[in-house]
């Protein structure tokens, strides 16, 4: 016992170091697990507040660009208005609300923090629980997919970005519906990899990749990117496909958060089926 | 100024600079200057070892909370803190360190500080980027990150020393 105490006193620095390191690595492994962090993340009150302050300053810098984006969107929406269309025939349009039931609901949000330079990139949004944002909602722009909501506080939401090698998105080739998973390889923020596409499928540069709709998170058919390069490795049954992402993650500012109104029903059914 | 107050202010200022400005510097995905570790560099010589580890842990964790990588910076900072006494010992002057000084450029000059800072920055960055990648695949990429970021962090830290901590 005396020897043990002596040992601890003598090597307390190293022992303490090892204890701290083990604690850190436990945090690292457990906390970054998808969907787990509730407390120590960029959507908590202090860091979220600071990010909002910083964002309010940097917003001035990008004001011109934001205006342009909003303008473009305005024009696009105006084009969709009925008043912009001229009736060319006598036929009438009938909308049957009992047949079409709304499945997806969109909310806008602004990015107040974003990074592309790490292996695990996260995005913080300025909206949270009280605005109707929930976990596992999809985050998209007009150009394509941005990420998935990881955790929410009352006023902020933290999003796991496509540029995070812990996020896998079920994706498919638009032309022939073969599906695989999209994963970021951590090298270039403009490019990601599409895995699990079998060898015999013919793929050309420029083919469009969209979401498959197999997970209950993303609606089907959202654009992810286009094929940039197809690499084949011997001894593998699958092709490695490099995708040029359609979103430029360095210039994101406004995004849409997509909620699936029928998600619970779907998940419940899928759960029952696997029981 | 009271040494505790001084270090507290330094802590807050460095974390804010890191989070608000430096985390947004992204040049081709390689360059991430991490200037906040200047706090660990400048802690006084007399600091007890356990406090050194604890403060470094808290510092790393604060940065982690902002970048959503809980445990990553904390582990790198703790490693750096662990190495620090050995580096100080190795670099020690013939007549030891005077009481009341801290390991800055103002007290020990450029060459000494350069060696001291470089060793510890390399320790921190190597640990950080290896933990971040969490594998030895793409190892050359990781090495590039370490080299480039070390260069920028070192430049920033030395510049800041000349700008702010004059005798």
From TrEMBL, chain A:
One of its GO terms (biological process) is regulation of cell shape. GO terms for cellular component: plasma membrane. Residues 111-258 form the Rod shape-determining protein MreC beta-barrel core domain. It holds the Pfam family MreC. Keywords: Cell shape, Membrane, Transmembrane, Transmembrane helix. The chain crosses the membrane at residues 7-29. Belongs to the MreC family. PANTHER family: CELL SHAPE-DETERMINING PROTEIN MREC. NCBIfam families: PRK13922.9-3. This is Cell shape-determining protein MreC.
TrEMBL record, chain B:
Keywords: Membrane, Transmembrane, Transmembrane helix. It comes from the Bacteria. The chain crosses the membrane at residues 12-31, 37-58, 65-85, 105-131, 143-164. This is Rod shape-determining protein MreD. The lineage of its organism: Bacteria, Pseudomonadati, Bacteroidota, Bacteroidia, Marinilabiliales.
């Amino acid at each position: 016992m005396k020897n043990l105490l002596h040992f601890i006193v003598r090597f307390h620095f190293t022992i303490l170091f090892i204890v701290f390191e083990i604690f850190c690595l436990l945090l690292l492994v457990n906390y970054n697990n998808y969907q787990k962090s509730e407390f120590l993340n960029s959507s908590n009150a202090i860091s979220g507040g600071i990010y909002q302050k910083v964002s309010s300053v940097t917003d001035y810098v990008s004001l011109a660009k934001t205006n342009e984006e909003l303008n473009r969107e305005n024009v696009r929406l105006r084009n969709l208005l009925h008043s912009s269309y001229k009736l060319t025939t006598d036929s009438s349009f009938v909308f049957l609300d009992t047949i079409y039931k709304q499945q997806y609901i969109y909310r806008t949000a602004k990015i107040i923090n974003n990074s592309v330079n790490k292996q695990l990139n996260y995005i913080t949004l300025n909206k949270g629980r009280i605005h109707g944002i929930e976990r596992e909602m999809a985050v998209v722009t007009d150009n394509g997919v941005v990420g998935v909501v990881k955790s929410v506080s009352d006023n902020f939401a933290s999003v796991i970005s496509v540029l995070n090698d812990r996020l896998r998105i079920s994706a498919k080739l638009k032309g022939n519906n073969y599906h695989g998973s999209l994963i970021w390889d951590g090298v270039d923020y403009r490019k990601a990899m599409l895995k699990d596409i079998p060898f015999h499928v013919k793929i050309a540069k420029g083919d469009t990749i969209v979401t498959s709709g197999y997970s209950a998170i993303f609606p089907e058919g959202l654009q992810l990117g286009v094929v940039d390069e197809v690499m084949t490795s011997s001894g593998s049954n699958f092709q490695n496909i490099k995708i040029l992402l359609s979103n430029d993650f360095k210039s994101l500012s406004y995004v849409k958060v997509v909620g699936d109104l029928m998600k619970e029903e779907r998940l419940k059914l899928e759960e029952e089926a696997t029981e | 100024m009271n040494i505790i107050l001084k270090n507290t202010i330094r802590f807050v200022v460095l974390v804010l600079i890191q989070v608000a400005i430096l985390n947004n510097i992204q040049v081709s995905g390689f360059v991430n200057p991490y200037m906040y570790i200047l706090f660990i560099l400048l802690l006084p010589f007399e600091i007890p070892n356990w406090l050194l580890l604890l403060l470094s842990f808290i510092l790393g964790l604060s940065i982690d909370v902002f970048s959503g990588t809980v445990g990553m910076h904390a582990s790198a900072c703790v490693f750096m803190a662990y190495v620090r006494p050995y580096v100080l010992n190795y670099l020690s002057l013939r007549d030891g360190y005077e009481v009341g000084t801290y390991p800055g450029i103002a007290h020990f000059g450029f060459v000494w500080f350069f060696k001291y800072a470089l060793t510890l920055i390399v320790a921190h960055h190597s640990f950080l980027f290896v933990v971040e990648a969490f594998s030895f695949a793409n190892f050359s990429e990781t090495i590039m990150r370490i080299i480039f970021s070390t260069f920028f962090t070192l430049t920033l830290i030395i510049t800041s020393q000349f700008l702010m901590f004059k005798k």
